[in-house]
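S1.2 Input.
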Amino acid sequence: MDLSNTALVNNAGSSAAGSVQASAQIFVLRKAMDLQAQGALELLNSVPPPPALASSGTLGTRLNVYA
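S1.3 Output.
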């Protein structure tokens, strides 16, 4: 996780509510969080599914071990 957004969070909390600067900081913070969420989702979707278990025969039907 990228912790560079911490400054944005601190600055967003220190601005007066309703000011243009606070609105812009909240917008940038939300945009950064959306980009991080999209990147995390793409990373999770790129993980291949686990291999299927053998359903017949004597090899691989009783113990599922893979590295």
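S1.4 Remarks. The mean pLDDT is 78.
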